[in-house]
């Protein structure tokens, strides 16, 4: 409610009260103040000290806008409190006097008033604004700027008004205006920077002109000049930093590797190179692979370099895979049979003392042995055993064979055979079993009936078990060393690795537990694998040699069985798989470059290149968007040479094989990224300066002549209002 009062001069004023008496008192006070003001129309000039105080007050009022009168009134309120006088009245009187003095100060010293105003504004730039993490994204910076603007806008608004409601309303208005200003500042400054980069590419001659201007102070300070090549390296580094931080490391085996960063990519390249694989950056993540494929498009020097590097590496793939097999599984000879024979001879010499001890033990002919002696398998083997002994220039009779006058063995005198004699017969039995499976013995040259061989081997095994049961030394020798026949069998079994299953290999391991037998099996297996790698690479120059060898290794059960055959080479199969997977990743890259990448992947690479060069993106069909697209097309034409230079530099990075040079190139990428992050952080902090000043000086309503606060019109101590 308000009451209208007519003053003596006919002026009508609205008093914010419905009490006529209070309205009359307020009107009298206003009339008295006007009369006093008229009598003192020429106020007494301020002294030097008072002017200095006015300068300080104006500075404070601009440092913390709208709080200068409140701060100036604090001493008045404090004195009133000490004297026991109304504090609120003294505080209001102090505010009024501050405003009067500031008005007189502005009138008497306008230049000085400008100085104090600028001093306060300048000091407000140093007010705290908090920080965001280095390298924070645009969203975080936008929120931070909005929060700073809202804070200072709200504080400035809260200093304006006489009642609590007015201050709250002004604080909300100031916070809203300051938040909008602060939220827009960082995107606006970042947009200006990007527009500047775009202009360098879009306007003919602008790139060289900007570089020339930048070199002026560098020449004065005797610093190295910025060259065209350095500019292109910076632009390619921005592009590569975007691509190198996309996706994950390509580890294969159905697993997802660590998040891709320049550091993890470099570490993966070094790990693969340590395995003997000439890895490139383009091998180790999907983003790097598509980048390499994108960099190979065209006919520039960089594109030719990518294709030549990958073709050269591909041509040596089969030889490398063969080398991986040798490194992990063991040496491969051009004459593996001779290699097995050498192993066998060494094993025979090592086993000699053990067999000598076994052969010296007494022999007991068991009923089971008598039954075996009567089988054709045993009977047919005895003549061969005698012949083998004589061929070795030894005496059959010394081993218990009873010879007739004609020098032939007497077939009914087996009870005198020694352990060594029985062992010789066992070996002959196994020879006969093998001969029974010779292809020449079957029509068509292919064995069709294995019954005879199976029975002969079974009886030989039974006889060996009988000897081992009564002769510990023989049992130990048999468990430790395989004879020449056992090694040959193991070697031939290993040669069948491509067709064997995991359970079949495990069964072979149980039947040949001796270390030298497993060595022979390993020789056969790795020889077959190495020869297959060479053969496949020759017959399929565009094929995946590593994948073909991995198929030979089979599933996990087969790999475990193969590894069990190589106890002296722990993790041999796992290590080979790692190398083969690294080779396979390289082959994928080669195929991508040969067939080029998918359209979507190329478009993403082009988009990242546009971002590195500052191209603006407004995805709509508005007039602004169409104009932007036209500008982009013009820029693409002007910057064609720039793009080619950048693509050539990218091609060098993704196919650099020397780890030291690659590390230097990656360091260059991370250094540019760090400079850009630092610049963006500084740009954000710079945007906070006008945010603080603008938010605190946003327009707010002027103080009212008559306040809605009734306490404002209570008589002062001197009778005024």
UniProtKB/TrEMBL annotation:
Give start-end positions of Polar residues composition bias: 33-50
Q: Where is this region: Disordered?
A: 1-52, 692-721
Record protein name field:
Uncharacterized protein
Give the source species.
Sphingomonas kyungheensis
């Amino acid at each position: 409610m308000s009451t209208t009062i007519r003053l003596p001069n006919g002026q009508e004023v609205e008093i914010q009260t419905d009490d006529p008496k209070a309205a009359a008192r307020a009107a009298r006070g206003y009339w008295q103040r006007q009369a006093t003001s008229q009598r003192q129309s020429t106020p007494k000039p301020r002294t030097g000290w008072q002017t200095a105080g006015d300068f300080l007050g104006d500075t404070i009022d601009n440092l913390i806008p709208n709080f200068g009168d409140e701060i100036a009134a604090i001493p008045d309120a404090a004195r009133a409190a000490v004297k026991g006088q109304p504090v609120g009245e003294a505080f209001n009187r102090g505010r009024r006097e501050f405003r009067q003095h500031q008005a007189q100060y502005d009138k008497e010293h306008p230049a000085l008033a400008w100085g104090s105003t600028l001093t306060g504004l300048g000091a407000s730039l140093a007010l705290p604004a908090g920080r965001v993490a280095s390298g924070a994204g645009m969203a975080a910076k936008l929120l931070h700027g909005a929060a700073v603007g809202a804070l200072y806008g709200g504080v400035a608004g809260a200093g304006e008004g006489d009642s609590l409601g007015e201050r709250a309303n002004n604080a909300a208005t100031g916070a809203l205006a300051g938040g909008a200003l602060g939220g827009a500042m960082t995107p606006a400054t970042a947009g200006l920077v990007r527009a500047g980069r775009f202009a360098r590419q879009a306007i003919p001659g602008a790139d060289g002109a900007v570089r020339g201007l930048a070199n002026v102070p560098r020449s004065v300070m005797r610093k190295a000049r910025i060259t065209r090549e350095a500019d292109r390296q910076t632009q390619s580094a921005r592009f590569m930093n975007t691509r190198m931080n996309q996706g994950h490391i390509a580890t294969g085996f159905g697993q997802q590797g660590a998040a891709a960063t320049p550091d993890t990519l470099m570490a993966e390249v070094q790990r693969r190179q340590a395995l003997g694989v000439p890895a490139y950056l383009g091998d180790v993540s999907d983003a790097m692979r598509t980048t390499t494929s994108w960099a190979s498009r065209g006919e520039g020097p960089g594109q030719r370099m990518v294709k030549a590097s990958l073709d050269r590496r591909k041509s040596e793939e089969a030889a490398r895979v063969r080398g991986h097999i040798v490194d992990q599984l063991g040496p491969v000879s051009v004459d593996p049979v001779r290699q097995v024979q050498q192993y066998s001879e060494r094993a025979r010499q090592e086993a000699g003392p053990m067999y000598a001890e076994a052969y010296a033990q007494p022999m007991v002919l068991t009923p089971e042995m008598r039954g075996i002696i009567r089988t054709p398998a045993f009977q047919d083997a005895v003549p061969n055993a005698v012949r083998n002994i004589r061929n070795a220039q030894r005496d059959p009779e010394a081993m218990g064979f009873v010879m007739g006058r004609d020098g032939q063995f007497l077939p009914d005198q087996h009870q005198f055979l020694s352990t060594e004699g029985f062992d010789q017969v066992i070996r002959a039995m196994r020879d006969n079993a093998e001969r029974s499976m010779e292809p020449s013995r079957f029509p068509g040259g292919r064995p069709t009936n294995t019954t005879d061989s199976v029975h002969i081997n079974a009886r030989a095994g039974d006889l060996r078990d009988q000897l081992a049961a009564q002769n510990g030394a023989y049992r130990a020798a048999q468990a430790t060393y395989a004879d020449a026949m056992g090694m040959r069998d193991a070697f031939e079994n290993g040669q069948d690795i491509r067709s064997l299953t995991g359970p079949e290999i495990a069964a072979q391991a149980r039947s040949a537990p001796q270390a030298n037998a497993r060595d022979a099996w390993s020789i056969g297996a790795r020889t077959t694998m190495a020869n297959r790698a060479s053969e496949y690479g020759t017959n399929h120059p565009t094929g995946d040699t590593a994948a073909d060898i991995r198929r030979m290794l089979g599933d996990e059960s087969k790999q475990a069985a193969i590894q069990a055959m190589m106890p002296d080479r722990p993790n041999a199969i796992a290590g080979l798989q790692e190398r083969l997977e690294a080779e396979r990743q390289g082959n994928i890259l080669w195929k991508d470059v040969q067939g080029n990448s998918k359209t979507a992947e190329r478009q993403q690479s082009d988009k990242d290149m546009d971002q590195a060069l500052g191209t603006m993106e407004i995805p709509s069909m508005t007039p602004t968007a169409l104009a932007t697209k036209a500008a982009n097309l013009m820029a693409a034409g002007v910057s064609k040479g720039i793009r080619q230079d950048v693509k050539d530099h990218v091609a060098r990075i993704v196919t650099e094989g020397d780890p030291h040079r690659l590390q230097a190139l990656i360091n260059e990428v991370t250094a540019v990224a760090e400079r850009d992050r630092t610049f963006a952080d500084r740009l954000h902090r710079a945007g906070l300066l006008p945010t603080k000043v603008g938010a605190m000086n946003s327009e707010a309503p002027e103080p009212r002549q008559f306040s809605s606060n009734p306490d404002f019109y209570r008589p002062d101590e001197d009778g005024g209002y």
